[in-house]
């Protein structure tokens, strides 16, 4: 009769480059597909935004757990968990998960997410025992076309979110269409019949673009997005904390500044003529966002990406909920190869961080658009 490994003999520590050969062997032993290759394992060992912990028994690495920490938010993802067959049933997997949760929570993260094959009932049961709950599915997720369950756990206490809005996620298809992508998500959260595709994304961008930004194509003006939403049957409130032309702080060319000012004035005049748009020139605070959500509005808001990617770019996101500690957003940008759609949905951002992120540029521009079905 085979004896189960002694859990007391297993120790946990951070992975090092000396573990690379063994980790590669474990990866090949445990997974038929969707493996982390040697180069990826090396990068994860050195990555400052990861928690990479190995289990050691009798001086031999017998398993590992890897967590990816989403920069600028309070969301982490259990990226991979692997254990040699002889260690299964020893309790080592639970210890690895708890150690990863503890290390991740110590970094200030609140939620851990993961995906697991729907057919892998043993692994799903393990995660359920550890407190993870299913909140969705991915179809055709793995190399073998099987589906994945999406699971989540709160790893630090958080009050119950009473204003979370079920919102479909859409990935922007160009670097300059975050505004249309965020607006489509907001509209679809209120009306399932709303079109959410690239054609609609680009159509909204043509309606709402500022023409120029600091470089490249222009992003979207809040009043341009407000007009696009109004034309699609929504009542709109647009809040801006300045009455002057927007997005000119980082523009050096006098000609571009002049064009931006003309476009701004055109949007102001069109919004003033639209009876379904209420333009409010005032500072945004989180209470107003909460009030909007409580009143049934869907909200998109402009943030600076500095805390997400260090680039200080203006970026539109859809707000999906708020509670005592966090605001939750859908981010339409998922260019980072480490990210999956799951990493960009219902992102928890602490209120303190969000307050800093929602002011853009040297002029501290704050702006948001709230929409609601007319009638």
SSE blueprint:
Layout lengths: L9 E5 L5 H11 L7 H9 L3 E8 L2 E10 L5 E9 L8 H15 L4 E7 L3 H9 L3 E6 L9 E7 L23 H13 L7 H11 L13 H10 L2 E7 L13 H20 L3 E5 L4 H9 L3 E7 L1 H4 L4 E9 L3 E5 L16 E4 H7 L9 E7 L2
Parallel strand pairs: 4-5, 8-9
Antiparallel strand pairs: 1-2, 2-3, 3-4, 5-7, 6-7, 8-14, 10-11, 10-14, 11-12, 12-13
Describe it.
GO terms for molecular function: acyltransferase activity, transferring groups other than amino-acyl groups. This is Ribosomal protein S18 acetylase RimI. Keywords: Acyltransferase, Ribonucleoprotein, Ribosomal protein, Transferase. With 375 residues, the protein is of the alpha+beta class. The protein folds into two domains: 148 residues, Aminopeptidase (3-Layer(aba) Sandwich); 196 residues, Alpha-Beta Complex (Cathepsin B, Chain A), CATH 3.90.70.10. Helix content is 31%, strand content 26%. The chain has eleven helices and 14 strands. The strands form two sheets. It has a seven-stranded mixed β-sheet, sandwiched between helices. The chain has a seven-stranded mixed β-sheet with strand order 9-8-14-10-11-12-13, with helices on both faces. Strand 3 and strand 4 form a beta hairpin. It is elongated.
């Amino acid at each position: 009769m085979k004896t189960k490994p002694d859990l007391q003999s297993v120790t946990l520590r951070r992975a090092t480059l000396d573990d690379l050969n063994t980790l590669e062997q474990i990866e090949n032993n445990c997974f038929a597909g969707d493996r982390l290759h040697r180069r990826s394992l090396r990068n994860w060992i050195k990555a400052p935004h990861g928690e990479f912990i190995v289990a050691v028994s009798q001086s031999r690495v017998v398993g590992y757990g890897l967590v990816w920490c989403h920069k600028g938010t309070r969301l982490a993802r259990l990226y991979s968990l692997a254990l040699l067959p002889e260690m299964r049933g020893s309790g080592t997997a639970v210890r690895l998960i708890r150690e990863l949760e503890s290390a991740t929570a110590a970094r200030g993260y609140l939620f851990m997410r993961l995906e697991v094959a729907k057919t892998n009932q043993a692994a799903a049961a393990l995660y359920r025992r550890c407190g993870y709950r299913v909140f969705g599915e991915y179809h055709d997720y793995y190399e073998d076309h099987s589906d994945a369950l999406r699971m989540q756990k709160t790893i630090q206490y958080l009050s119950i979110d009473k204003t979370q809005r079920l919102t479909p996620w859409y990935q922007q298809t160009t670097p300059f269409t975050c505004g249309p992508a965020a607006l489509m998500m907001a509209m679809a959260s209120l009306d399932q019949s709303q079109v959410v595709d690239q054609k609609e994304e680009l159509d909204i961008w043509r309606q709402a673009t500022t023409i120029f930004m600091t470089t490249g194509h222009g992003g979207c003006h809040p009043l341009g997005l407000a007009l696009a939403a109004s034309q699609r049957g929504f009542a709109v409130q647009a809040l801006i904390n300045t009455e002057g032309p927007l997005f000119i702080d980082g523009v050096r060319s006098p000609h571009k500044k002049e064009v931006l000012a003309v476009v701004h004035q055109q949007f102001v005049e069109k919004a003033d003529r639209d009876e379904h748009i209420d333009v409010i020139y005032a500072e945004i605070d989180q209470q107003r966002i909460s009030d909007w959500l409580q009143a049934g509005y869907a909200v998109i808001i402009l943030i600076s990406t500095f805390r997400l990617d260090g680039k200080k770019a203006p970026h539109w996101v859809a707000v999906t909920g708020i509670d005592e500690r966090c605001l939750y957003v859908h981010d339409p940008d998922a260019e980072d190869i480490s990210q999956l759609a799951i990493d960009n949905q219902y992102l928890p951002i602490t209120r303190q961080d969000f307050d800093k992120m929602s002011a853009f540029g040297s002029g501290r521009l704050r702006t948001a658009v709230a929409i609601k079905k007319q009638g």
